[in-house]
Amino acid sequence: MLVNRCVILGAVVLLLLSGTGTGSTQETKTPEVTTLKPAAEISLKSLLGDSADRRLPTVTALALGAGGRYLAVAGDDHVVRMIDLPAGTVGEGGSHAVLWEKAGHRDWVRGAVFTPDGQALISVDQNGGIRVWGTRDGNRTVEIRQPVRGARAVAVSPDGTTFAVCGFEKAVRCYRTADGRETVSFDAPGGANQAIAYSPDGKRIAVAGRNGTIRLWNTQTQKTDRDLKGDARRVNALAFSPDGTLLAVGSDGPSILLWNVRDGSIAVTLPERPGKTFSIGFCANDRLASGESDNVVRLWDISNARQSTDLTGHTGTVTTLLFDVANDRLISGSFDTGVKFWNIAP
């Protein structure tokens, strides 16, 4: 009788360990990640010609303006190009053309952004050069050289009156869009700062860089609200959620962190992924896109902290991301010299 009881008990233990008990398989199953190919792309080779002696630029700066009508593209050839996307169309079956291209920068263009009204484009380069261009004609309206070499990123205020630039120094400098006059500067703890973003209400600027600490600076009090201590890995990208409650941080670390802006706590930690995050952007309050060093764009569902989709097609690090609200699509640029468009509507 004792032997039979031992046999029965052993069978029950094996059943539980095997996970075949009621509901256990469903509870531990990893959600499936779907794969999506680009819906369209812009070939810089076709736009610039097939000349054998013309090297194609890597894409490190994208900006979208006028409701998705104009796309600015820039990179390591120091040139800014304005591409016209009539009615938001691109790729096969659509039309696009270079509206203008300007070679006013002296070094690698690392960041670009349109003013909210779409009338001007601001671009920055590694030599500390800052340019403000007229969207339609490419005429240069402002030209600035930062006191210290190097500008890595630029963000514009929601009202378009000022923009902020960070780079290879502690100082973050804010300028007036109309005439380029410096209005204020403040120090950020990251040293070589890589990423900067304005909150949707314009009340905060987030900036971060080499040491992984994110500074939230209050534009109204002109004082630091708080410093967010990450994992001490270099921060490459920052983005506020559309409602301004979350700040997403992409870095060299294993996980993407989303911070609660109000109290400075970590709201969400997304699962670890291979490589490093070089670009980041919200597609909605609960949906995030990240561009990675393994050439993949990943879509994340924030509400359940999981990845939903792999966007594959790039053959180089994904350096920059934009969400085109008017056309429900994501736009990505890469070291592979390509610009890709992804239809990501649910």
Layout of helices and strands:
Layout: H1 2-17, H2 24-28, E1 34-36, E2 40-43, H3 44-48, E3 59-65, E4 70-75, E5 80-84, E6 97-102, E7 109-114, E8 120-125, E9 129-134, E10 140-145, E11 153-156, E12 162-166, E13 171-176, E14 182-187, E15 193-198, E16 204-209, E17 213-218, E18 223-229, E19 235-240, E20 246-251, E21 257-260, E22 266-269, E23 277-284, E24 287-292, E25 297-301, E26 306-311, E27 318-324, E28 329-334, E29 338-343
Parallel strand pairs: 1-26
Antiparallel strand pairs: 2-29, 3-4, 4-5, 5-6, 7-8, 8-9, 9-10, 11-12, 12-13, 13-14, 15-16, 16-17, 17-18, 19-20, 20-21, 21-22, 23-24, 24-25, 25-26, 27-28, 28-29
The CATH class designation is: Mainly Beta
- The average pLDDT is 87
Strand content: over 45%
Number of separate helices: 3
**Structural shape:** globular
The poorly predicted ranges are 1-30
By DSSP, the count of extended strands is 29
Q: Which structural class fits the helix and strand makeup?
A: mainly beta
- Subunit arrangement of the protein: single chain
The radius of gyration over CA amounts to: 23 Å
CATH architectural group: 7 Propeller
Number of domains: 1
From the 3D structure, determine the CATH topology: Methylamine Dehydrogenase, Chain H
CATH homology superfamily: YVTN repeat-like/Quinoprotein amine dehydrogenase
Helix content: under 10%
What about the largest sheet? 5 strands, mixed
Order of neighbouring strands in the sheet with most strands:
1-26-25-24-23
> Distance between termini?
60 Å
